[in-house]
Amino acid sequence: MSLPPILANTLRLPVIGAPLFIISNPDLVLAQIKAGIVGSFPALNARPASMLDEWLARITEERTAYDAAHPDAPTAPFAVNQIVHRSNDRLDQDVALCVKYKVPVVITSLGARADVCEAIHSYGGIVLHDVINVGFARKAVEKGADGLIAVAAGAGGHAGTLSPFALVAEIRAWFDGPLALSGAIATGSGILAAQAAGADVAYIGSPFIATHEANATAAYKQAILDSTADDVVYTDVVSGIHGNYLKSSLIAAGLDPAKLPGSDPSKMNFAGGAGAKAWRDIWGAGQGIGAVGELVPAGERIARWREEYAVAWERLSKEAVLF
Asked: How far is 184 from 132, CA to CA, in rounded Å?
């Protein structure tokens, strides 16, 4: 197992900040990469489409300036998430902008396309594809993905149902490339556990909702702080694809979490009662939110994880018993 130089030589903590629909923005990404982890955002968060050019210009320029001013602690790479789904009519133009700005990492979701990988490879970028099972993982690698993101049970948003131990083990049986693990990781010890399970890095999203930089409403941020794993519901009613969402937001949208209606997998724009819309009013969250205790700047949350990671590593080094 090994990370490509673009990641191995820059990360100060083995973490990729997951792209959060609506929530991830340049402020959050810049805070993440300055703290030494990969920061990412969905291309579709930049609305109208022309705003993506502005976001990429800002991130690129501020990153260059920061690196010049901090040569001993430069930024980590940033990533753009591309939704490879028939509902995304912006894909081609958004990929073209990634090529224009030479985005270091592109995360593809909900479909794999060889031409997207080829475009990113043309300037030396890498493609990571998120998957919920080995079948999708094999297809992604066949299409040219450089690495995989194992989205296991408990992850926020679109998530799978497999145990992280099972999913990572099955992928590692045939794939030795870059592998990230997602699923209820919200502490420094959890990051170390992801590596112990066989992943190279942890893939973390939900804890960043409760940060100052996140583009989330105050109510959403507070709901993250107030909720635990028991408050997360797994359903396909929101987007047609199964994912994890906060129970309280489903109820506020006029839905009964115990009696959810069917879904239409061809659509990704569910509207509930009282004009509630998917993602804006129905809030994604992973099962790890019980460990998110307060609203803090993203950099502070990452610094705490670095401390917890070091403590966990030291404790295991001293106390682990090898049989």
From this structure: 14
pTM of the model: 0.92
Nearest CA to 81 out of 127, 26, 43, 28 is that of: 43
In this structure, the dihedral spanned by the alpha carbons of residues 101, 105, 108 and 109, taken in order and rounded to 10 degrees, is: -120
Note whether 146 and 177 are within 8 A (CB).
Answer: yes
Strand 243-246 and strand 157-158: the pairing is: antiparallel
Q: Which residues pair with 179 in a beta bridge?
A: 148
Nearest to residue 245, comparing CAs of 206, 210, 271, 211? Answer: 206
What would the pLDDT profile of 56-75 be if each residue is shown by its tens digit? 999 999 999 999 999 999 99
Secondary element (H or E) of residue 222: helix 218-226
List C-alpha distances in Å: 90 to 48, 163, 270: 10, 33, 20
Rounded-to-integer distance, Cα 164 and Cα 168, Å: 6
Compute the C-alpha angle 16/21/24, nearest 5°. Answer: 55
What radius of gyration, in Å, describes the C-alpha atoms of the chain? Answer: 19
> 39, 23, 109, 40: which is closest to 76 by C-alpha?
39
